[in-house]
């Protein structure tokens, strides 16, 4: 009681001195603390995006036009690039999710020695830089790589072309994305108490029911998070496609880089960037919407 | 009383890597009986329960329900249902979906499911809760739904793994009574695991007292309380005084008292006396002398600690009688009933 009074008194005097209420002061402090990150956001995200959007809407003479976008969606090579990229991204994401989910479920429910080893090793790829990993893939799967040499030594006469192709990129995408996906899903699966699964089995749920009616509903949000992260990472991938991607069609990231630094066609490059940004925003929109849409229970 | 054996366990053994586990578990449970597995944590009671439920496979032994071995069956095929310790409702399903799930798997018709769910919710006193999610229910309500979910499966044996231990004391008592009512009304066979002796004493037909992986005693609550077989049971169940005594011939002597030596013990013995079997004497020459150490008033009665030549004893007295007693005064006590144990046990 006394303390309260003293506090109120102190506040009064300080307010009188500065002429500002405590609330105003607090909000000013708050704004000051937010300001640096706001500046960063403006200069690193908002401004470049607006510039790119503007650039994409200008023709070589500096007039407003949709020519760049028209080119993007009508030029045969460009159309192929877009289709190639979307196809690769969707297929890679789906396979990543499937394999990552299987791995996570195996790690969650298997208690053997092998699973113990996999548990220790599976996330190593996350700590290997993309360039090194890509050269590793070249060394392993390349025309004169280890696999080819082993096949040769075993008496085979040819090794199928694997990298510098769709398959090589798919392989690289899986290598880069499965560990993180499996890690996310593992932690989601670890959050399901054993007793919940046991009670489901107790009332008669077999393996299939257990998976579709319990494990999937309890982890689908994390699956969505994993899907979003994989999608974003794969659609914007550059290192692997640059080193082991095919020359045509190309992944959008590479096509963009070429338009920009080789053909010096800033408008087309910007249009591609804006298109990719829109794709990712759409993904982000679905992600945020499903995160916000809590089930009525609100657990 | 019906004598059909509903569940029989014989020669059950399960040892964990840590060396803990259960051994020589033999138990027969009659139809309509509520059996408690009681013991301190780590005594193996949950191991026995989980083995019956199918979540553990034993190293050796046999578990039969209605004379059919169930050991080869996975949990989902066993005629048992389990109520788990923590609230175990599936968070992504409503109460109705939680209850209906098992019935759906059994291809019960939709209208029948609806009717059964309504019935069982009435039974556990939660009518009209179908649409709620588990997180919208209190702990007691959740555990009621969990019991209801198990009952709906019409199990031949219902297994309960410390189902009320997460609830507060008052709710625990209510749930106990309700469970007992449901059990009696449906003539259900239940195996109830608890570490709470009061809970076991209040609801069981018979209690199985377990200690470090073995069964110490199987008897009705009354017999467990009055005739604990071993020193462990005597220590574990209820309040008990332990006095030093000597077994000589067919007598057991505790100071000036002599009791019949039923078990034929020899030498130094531990004599167990319930506080309610000790009486205060007013005759200066009778019984055993002692000094009051402490008088604690606990509501309607008082607990008196008395230092005697045979050891410290506790006595319960009505509050009125305890009023005249004070710390340090000399009293004389008599003992009406004892149980003796050889000191090696």
UniProtKB/TrEMBL annotation, chain B:
The keyword Methyltransferase does not apply. It catalyses: a quaternary ammonium(out) + ATP + H2O = a quaternary ammonium(in) + ADP + phosphate + H(+). Its EC number is 7.6.2.9. The keyword Cell cycle does not apply. Residues 7-237 form the ABC transporter domain. PROSITE patterns: ABC_TRANSPORTER_1 (PS00211), ABC_TRANSPORTER_2 (PS50893). It comes from the Bacteria. It holds the Pfam family ABC_tran. The complex is composed of two ATP-binding proteins (OpuCA), two transmembrane proteins (OpuCB and OpuCD) and a solute-binding protein (OpuCC). This is Carnitine transport ATP-binding protein OpuCA. It comes from Paenibacillus monticola. The lineage of its organism: Bacteria, Bacillati, Bacillota, Bacilli, Bacillales.
């Amino acid at each position: 009681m006394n303390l309260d009074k003293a506090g109120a008194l102190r506040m009064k005097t300080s307010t009188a001195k500065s002429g500002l209420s405590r609330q105003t002061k607090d909000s000013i402090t708050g704004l000051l603390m937010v300001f640096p990150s706001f500046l960063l956001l403006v200069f690193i995200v908002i401004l470049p995006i607006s510039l790119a959007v503007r650039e994409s809407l200008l023709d070589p003479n500096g007039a407003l036009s949709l020519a760049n976008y028209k080119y993007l969606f009508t030029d045969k090579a460009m159309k192929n690039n877009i289709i190639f990229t979307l196809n690769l991204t969707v297929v890679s994401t789906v396979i990543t999710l499937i394999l990552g989910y299987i791995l996570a479920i195996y790690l969650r429910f298997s208690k053997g020695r092998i699973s113990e080893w996999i548990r220790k090793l599976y996330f190593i790829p996350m700590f290997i830089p993309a360039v090194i990993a890509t050269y590793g893939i070249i060394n392993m799967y390349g025309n004169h790589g280890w696999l080819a040499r082993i096949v040769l030594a075993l008496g085979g006469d040819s090794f199928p072309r694997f990298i510098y192709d769709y398959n090589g990129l798919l392989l690289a995408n899986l290598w880069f994305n499965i560990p993180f996906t499996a890690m996310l899903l593992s932690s989601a699966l670890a959050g399901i108490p054993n007793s919940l699964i046991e009670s489901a089995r107790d009332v008669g749920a077999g393996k299939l029911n257990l998976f579709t009616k319990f494990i999937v509903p309890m982890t689908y949000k994390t699956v969505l998070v994993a899907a979003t992260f994989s999608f974003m990472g794969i659609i914007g991938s550059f290192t692997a496609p640059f080193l082991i991607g095919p020359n045509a069609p190309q992944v959008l990231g590479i096509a963009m880089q070429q338009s920009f630094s080789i053909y010096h066609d800033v408008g087309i490059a910007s249009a591609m960037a804006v298109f990719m940004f829109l794709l990712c925003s759409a993904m982000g929109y679905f992600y945020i919407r499903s995160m916000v849409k809590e089930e009525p229970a609100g657990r | 009383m019906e004598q059909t054996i509903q569940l029989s366990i014989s020669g059950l053994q399960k040892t964990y890597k840590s060396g803990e586990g259960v051994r020589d578990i033999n138990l027969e449970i009659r139809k309509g009986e509520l059996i408690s597995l009681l013991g301190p944590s780590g005594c193996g009671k949950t191991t026995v329960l989980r083995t019956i439920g199918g979540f553990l496979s034993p190293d050796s032994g046999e578990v039969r329900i209605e004379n059919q071995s169930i050991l080869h069956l996975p949990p989902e095929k066993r005629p048992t249902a389990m109520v788990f310790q923590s609230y175990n409702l599936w968070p992504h399903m409503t109460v109705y979906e939680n209850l209906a799930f098992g019935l759906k798997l059994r291809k019960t018709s939709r209208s029948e499911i609806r009717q059964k769910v309504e019935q069982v919710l009435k039974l556990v006193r939660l009518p009209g809760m179908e649409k709620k999610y588990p997180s919208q229910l209190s702990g007691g309500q959740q555990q009621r739904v969990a019991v209801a979910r198990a009952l709906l499966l019409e199990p031949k044996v219902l297994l309960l793994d410390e189902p009320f231990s997460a609830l507060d004391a008052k709710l625990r008592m209510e749930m106990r009574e309700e469970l007992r009512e449901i059990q009696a009304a449906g003539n259900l066979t239940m195996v109830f695991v608890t570490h709470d002796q009061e809970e076991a004493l209040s609801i069981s037909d018979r209690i199985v007292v377990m200690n470090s992986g073995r069964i110490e005693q199987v008897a009705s609550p009354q017999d467990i309380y009055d005739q604990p077989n071993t020193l462990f049971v005597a220590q574990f169940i209820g309040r008990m005084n332990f006095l030093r005594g000597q077994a000589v011939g067919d007598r057991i002597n505790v100071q000036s008292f002599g009791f019949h030596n039923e078990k034929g013990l020899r030498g130094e013995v531990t004599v167990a006396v319930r506080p309610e079997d000790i009486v205060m004497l007013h005759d200066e020459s009778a019984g055993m002398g002692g000094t009051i150490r402490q008088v604690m008033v606990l509501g309607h009665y008082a607990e008196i600690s008395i230092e005697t030549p045979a050891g410290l004893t506790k006595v319960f007295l009505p509050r009125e009688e305890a009023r005249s007693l004070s710390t340090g005064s000399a009293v004389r006590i008599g003992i009406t009933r004892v149980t003796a144990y050889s000191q090696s046990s």
